[in-house]
Amino acid sequence: MHCVKKITDDLYWVGANDRRLAMFEGVYSVPDGVSYNSYLLKDEKTVLFDTVDKAVGRRFFENLAAVLNGAPLDYVVVQHMEPDHSAALVELLCAYPGVKIVCNAKTLAFINQFNNMDIGPRAVVVNDGDTLASGRHTLTFVMAPMVHWPEVMVTYDAADKILFSADAFGCFGALNGALFADEVDFAKDYADEARRYYANIVGKYGTQVSALLNKASALAIETICPLHGFVWRKNLREIMSKYILWSGYAPEEQGVMIAYASVYGNTENAAEILACRLREAGIVTRMYDVSVAHASDIVAAAFKWSHLVFASTTYNAGIFVAMEALLNDLVSHNIQNRTVALIENGSWAATSGGLMREKLSKCKNMTVLDETVSIKSGLKPAQSGELSALADAIARTFPERAKQNTATGATGATGAAGATGAEIKPAVDKSAMFKLSYGLFVLTAKEGEKDNGCIINTAAQLTDEPLRISVTVNNANHTRGMIARTGEFAVSVLTESAPFNIFERFGFKSGADTDKFLGLADAGRTAGGLRCLNKNANAVIAAKVSETVDCGTHTLFIADVTEAFALSNEPSVTYAYYFENIKPKPRPPKEIKSGYVCRICGYVHEGDVLPENFICPLCKHGAADFEPL
Ligand code: FEO
To answer: How many CB atoms lie within 10 A of CB 269?
Structure first.
């Protein structure tokens, strides 16, 4: 029985899933299976985009026949000749004798080479930029060599703004009833497998992927149909931004991946102590035992993290076998732009450190720290300082984090007034502060796997050259601590259409015990991996902290803009607009005779006096944001 999915009025997924495959391409474990996507366009002419692996041929042919429903198959576009997408091609030619094969010259040679046949008379050979009209649709073929074989091309349908992207934007994992990435929590449940797929399948070809991204950036794309994994029809930036990072070999996360090879646990012991020292310095760590973890997982992790530590025992006067294989794998996948530290072990002649260093010298832009820790059989108590020194050396290479400047000198308005020598202090009417105009923003941070965000009204541009912004965050906010530790944040500029529940979600709960993004549709990520809003915001600005100022109850972060993009022309919401039009009017309980109401969230503090240092227990805003009932 067929099992198909409709993508648009005339486009169908006719692929199939394989959950019995042990090793994809004979190398990569696929514990959650894999999908082989094939798409059928039912226009005046029918056009099939690629076929499937031989393992799922039967289901594919049932699907194809069901959607064709008796119509002839006019064209099959062969975008990629790797057999996981072309194994059913010859059977297709037999089943549909009238079908023409649309392919480029390299593909044609591969078809003949794989099948010992000449399909020349049935081929429509296309070049970069050539088009094929199928009726309402005009398909443009775009060459994408080495993404992931030399013959690869992708296809753009201008009518519905669809990119058929071949292997690009694919993901390991069978489809479990959901075809679209927006039907699942992709960031939580599938991003790791998308990274593992990218790093291992096309990670080596970053330059070629970048070239494809450049070509794609000139196209208006609303849907991406890859040959594996989910179809993207919403929030395309989520996967695009990952590809920009991965193809540029830029780390997604600041943190240390530690891969170790240990025969009797002594090298592991040193690696664990190093991990502890790094954690104590506030640095995120992730450890892998190379004898147990699959190499494809570690390669993917190396693409994710900014810093890599390799710890290996010496084995047969060389690097331990699994570690040697891993390093070969990483070199061949073109890993670059990382900071690396090494630990070696050897009972009589430790050579693994030097040999690992030699292997890594083949990678571009790798900073291998000088401080290799060398162990003889097991770590000695006297070497504790060496591991601390290695942790310190690693920590020194991180961007400035959590540097808190203690306030010096100035003590605010009263001090300034005192400096005049006048006995009469100027009056301070805090309501004057409410005349200042502010916007409202969702400020987000990411620390390890944890995303968080809060509402602020204090984002502002500081300078144009260099482009700098500042944000001020209440110290009680969990987001503040995350920014202090990671040195990064993003600001989503809220619009007048932002509903009150956005303010409730980000403003009235603490991220310490809440996942503020749980169930939030239309949230994406910046290229740097920070959460941002795609809806109810008109722009997103991400920045790296260059200076931190302790303002007592609040912290001021001054930061260099690293990424900025506009989402819409909707007006930004102002503080005043929020109070007038979005925030429900507070309705204090009748029995409260006197008190103060929080202008931000409506919390009512009962009593005649509001302490100066009062912090709203709901939204964490200070006394200045309260007004008498
Ligand atoms: Fe999914 Fe390169 O084949």
So the answer is: 17
What is each CA distance from 437 to 172, 251, 431, 458, 474, in whole angstroms?
49, 38, 13, 10, 19
Q: Which of 572, 547, 576, 549 is nearest to 559 (CA)?
A: 547
Instruction: Describe the strand order of the beta sheet including 595-598 as a list of residue ranges.
Output: 604-606, 595-598, 626-628
**What single DSSP character describes residue 621?**
-
Quick one: pLDDT at residue 618? 72
**Closest ligand 1 atom number to CA of residue 148:** 2
Angle value at C-alpha 310, between 309 and 313, nearest 5 degrees: 145
CA of 8 to the centre of ligand 1 (A): 25
Q: What pLDDT is stored for residue 400 in this prediction?
A: 57
pTM of the full structure: 0.67
What percent of the chain shows pLDDT beyond 90?
74
**Ligand 1 center to 148 CA (angstroms):** 7
Burial of 618 (0-12, 13-18, 19+ CB in 10 A): middle
Name 501's Cβ contacts closer than 8 Å, sequence gap at least 6.
none
Nearest CA to ligand 1 atom 3: 82
Q: Which atom of ligand 1 is nearest to the CA of 152?
A: 2
- b/e burial code for range 580-594 (CB count within 10 A of at least 16 → b): eebeeeeeeeeeeee
> Would the CB of 18 count as within 6 Å of ligand 1?
no
List C-alpha distances in Å: 18 to 60, 110, 189, 295, 411.
12, 25, 19, 22, 68
Mean pLDDT value across residues 506-520: 86
Q: Are 245 and 562 in contact (CB under 8 A)?
A: no
Amino acid 423: pLDDT: 41
What's the 219 CA to ligand 1 centre distance in angstroms?
23
Nearest atom in ligand 1 to the alpha carbon of residue 166 is: 1
Q: What is the DSSP letter of 457?
A: S
pLDDT in tens, 83-100: 999 999 999 999 999 999
